[in-house]
Amino acid sequence: MEDILENKSLKTLHLIKELSGVATKEAFSHIRALHYYPFGHTNLNPNIAVEHPDFGINKHPVLLVHGVIHNRSAFFALKSEMQKWQWTNVFTINYSTWHGSLTGMIEDLAKHVQQIKKETGASQIDIVAHSLGGLVARYYMTTGKGRGAIRQLITLGTAHRGAHLSGLLRFFLGGSLHRDLKKNSYFIESLNEVSPPKNSRVVSIYTRRDKIVWPYTNCLLEEEGCSQYLNIEMDVAGHMSLLYDKSVFFKIHDLLLEDYQEVEKHKGHFQPGHWINQLEEDSL
Q: Which band of pLDDT confidence, cut at 50, 70 and 90, is reported for residue 11?
């Protein structure tokens, strides 16, 4: 009996230690985001557009799209990492979310994408987006003039099935965003009824420790019946930690260098779980 109690006590202590470590990492990520935020209003790491090379390391320009009540500073760390990889044409943007209008955000994104395509000569670009930015980018790439403009969208902690806590946004933002982001809202249901264009892909990177998008399963794309959707769970401390965790950076690296067309050719033999495991092995 004493051994059983001792084992339970050890397990409890281990769990408390693990949870406190996770909470500390996520808290540090929030502090880091707040520290960088003022610098996002002035582009300390300016976007430099050149004609995109045919044989560049990254085959397409990359646009990094921040989430709600944030700015380009959200992606200072990832952009710096991509520059270390000697990637060409990596861009960050600022767009307003304070007005709470999704159509306004999508329009802002469309202008940036068109500008990048014009300045680099690229027919398509890739996007990495955090939180709300993933919904904005996904809507743009699947409807209207945006169809075919995005080769691959990688979302980090994006509520593809809506967010239960969206109601809190009414205290911070104008517009109807707090209603649009609810689970089963017209916007969310409409978005999930439209498949991505041919030869494009949407990847959702998420963590089950996400307390902003709760439950974390709301980050999942409907993979069944659509080979262009892929969900990847990461062992990350939380919603904000997705912006700074090196394992997430490595995953993004591998996904963006993956030749999606080659995957499509062999999709009859394609097992998502096997591919994810292979990516993890390649990142070691």
A: low
CATH architecture classification, 2-260+272-283:
3-Layer(aba) Sandwich (3.40)
CA pair distance 232, 247, nearest whole angstrom: 12
Cα–Cα distance for residue pair 269/261, rounded to 1 Å = 14
Q: How far apart are CA 155 and CA 132, in angstroms?
A: 9
Q: Domain extents for the chain?
A: 2-260+272-283
List, for residues 41-91, the tens digit of each pLDDT value: 887 788 989 999 988 899 999 999 999 989 999 999 999 999 999 999 999
DSSP alpha helix (H) spans, 127-271 = 132-142, 177-180, 186-192, 246-257, 260-265
Residues facing residue 98 across a β-bridge: none
Nearest to 195 by CA among 149, 226, 160: 226
Residues 6+ apart with CB under 8 A from 79: 45, 64, 90, 92
DSSP label of 230: E
> How far is Cα 222 from Cα 219, in angstroms, rounded to an integer?
10
